[in-house]
Specification:
There is one protein chain. This protein has about 200 residues and is an all-alpha fold. It has a single domain, classed as VKOR domain (de novo design (two linked rop proteins)), CATH 1.20.1440. It is about 75% helix and about 0% strand. A two-stranded antiparallel ribbon has the order 1-2. Helix 3 runs antiparallel to helix 7. The longest helix has about 45 residues. The protein is elongated. The termini are far apart. The N terminus is likely disordered.
């Protein structure tokens, strides 16, 4: 009887682990696609803007991309989005490598920020700018999917809260490559904006 109970419990645990892997795998795929999308938008800012004189802007995606709302602290929002998706991807890859339970709890908080930013920007497109940017909608969809997936991970996880977990099981030396991944993205952001290798256009130009 005890053997049957043990086998059943192992089956449940195996099923839960499989579901967790699928959820993290999906989150990684969405984060990667979101990163590609925002990088394409960054390319638009750097290579296409400013638009030629007389170009039709009102009511088009260009009204969104050239608006003051598409910049945060003087940097295209797409760049911040690229760093965000890179950070989520680093968390996912770290979980696959080390199975840190802290990530199962942290991911929901991180993706909540991304969702709130996306909802805010979509609201600006609909009610303030009154134009739609398809690539921005793709990013907002990615943020929403990441939040829903993170919520599924949070619900599926049997890990204690972050306050209870603390830094148990975290070896700083193991976090070198995820930190380097994010640092590379931030360094690229700084290079474009501060060094001026590719000068950013003035908002509204």
């Amino acid at each position: 009887m005890s053997h049957a109970t043990s086998t059943s419990q192992e089956h449940v645990e195996s099923t839960e682990t499989a579901w967790m892997q699928r959820l993290f795998g999906f989150a990684g795929l969405v984060a990667f696609l979101g990163w590609l999308d925002t990088n394409f938008l960054v390319g638009v800012h750097l290579e296409i803007l400013p638009l030629p004189a007389g170009a039709a802007i009102e009511g088009t995606q260009w009204a969104v991309i050239t608006s003051e709302w598409s910049y945060l602290f003087g940097v295209p929002s797409a760049m911040w989005g690229a760093v965000y998706y890179l950070f989520v991807l680093a968390l996912v890859l770290t979980w696959f490598t080390y199975r840190l339970p802290q990530i199962e709890r942290l991911l929901l908080a991180v993706t909540s920020i991304g969702l709130l930013m996306s909802v805010g920007f979509v609201a600006l497109m609909l009610f303030v700018i009154e134009a739609i940017c398809p690539l921005c909608i793709v990013s907002a969809t990615s943020s929403t999917l990441l939040f829903l997936t993170a919520a599924g991970i949070y619900w599926q996880s049997d890990a204690p809260s972050l306050s209870e977990l603390g830094t148990d099981g975290i070896d700083v030396t193991r976090l070198v490559w995820p930190v380097m991944l994010v640092a590379t993205g931030v360094a690229a952001l700084a290079m474009y904006h501060l060094v001026g290798v590719l000068p950013l256009p003035v908002p509204g130009a």
